[in-house]
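hey
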């Protein structure tokens, strides 16, 4: 059976822009454009889950104008793509601490999730203000709230699983990272325990279906 779940760290937007003497933010604009054809390519290849790392908890440290460009891009993506997601049957979900986002963006996220929840196609999960360590700690706290009478010595992996943000999804079969670095950078730490890792020097705005096929091969 081919892979069901692919997770991707989309790196190299800034360098893509720098190579063209463009502002970094244009690299993110181009990077966002890669997502729609990628979702389609994954669907065509029978992949049931695609999870994209769009914004890490560490990304808040970037210059304020870059952070606001990224927030604006997420909002635009959600406004523009929901109707296409409906056509393609995409089920959209966001993981990460969304409470830090502007209310307008939180509303767009909730709308995209609600209006695609009953679709039957690929699960597209965007990780934003997400960190793998946060996910595990958050799940542990939730488990304790759900089991107030149990001591932590009774916590085990199957017990924690339903409280993790990817609950219900198969673990990623393949993690792809573009941009030349060979690190997991606090992405899906728990879920990638057995995942195969694939690193490529290609910069995210250049990523395409042929490169996806190379990674799958
Ligand atoms: C890493 O490149 C990329 C990001 C921090 C942002 C990823 C966001 C997008 C691709 C756009 C929006 C996505 C969606 C799902 C709408 P970098 O800036 O770290 O590149 P560098 O290492 O070359 O500087």
């Amino acid at each position: 059976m081919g892979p069901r779940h692919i997770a991707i760290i989309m790196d190299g937007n800034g360098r893509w822009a720098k190579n063209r003497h463009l502002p970094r933010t244009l690299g993110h604009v181009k990077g966002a454009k890669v997502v729609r054809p990628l979702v389609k390519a994954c669907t065509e290849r029978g992949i049931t889950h695609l999870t994209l790392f769009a914004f890490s908890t560490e990304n808040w440290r970037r210059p304020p104008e870059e952070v606001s460009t990224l927030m604006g891009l997420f909002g635009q993506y959600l406004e523009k793509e929901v109707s296409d997601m409906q056509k393609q049957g995409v089920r959209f979900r966001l993981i990460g601490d969304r409470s830090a986002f502007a209310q307008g963006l939180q509303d767009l996220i909730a709308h995209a999730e609600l209006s695609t929840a009953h679709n039957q196609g690929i699960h597209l999960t965007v990780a934003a203000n997400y960190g793998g360590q946060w996910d595990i700690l958050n799940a542990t706290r939730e488990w304790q709230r759900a089991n107030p009478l149990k001591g932590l010595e009774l916590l085990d992996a199957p017990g924690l699983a339903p409280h993790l943000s990817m609950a219900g999804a198969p673990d990623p079969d393949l993690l792809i990272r573009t941009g030349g670095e060979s690190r997991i950078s606090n992405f899906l730490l728990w879920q990638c325990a057995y995942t195969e890792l694939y690193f490529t020097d290609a910069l995210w705005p250049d990523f395409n279906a042929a490169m996806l096929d190379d990674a799958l091969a």
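The pocket of farnesyl diphosphate is lined by residues 10-15, 28, 31-32, 35, 52, 54, 59, 70, 73-74, 77, 126, 179, 204 (CB under 6 Å). The first strand starts at residue 5 and ends at 9.
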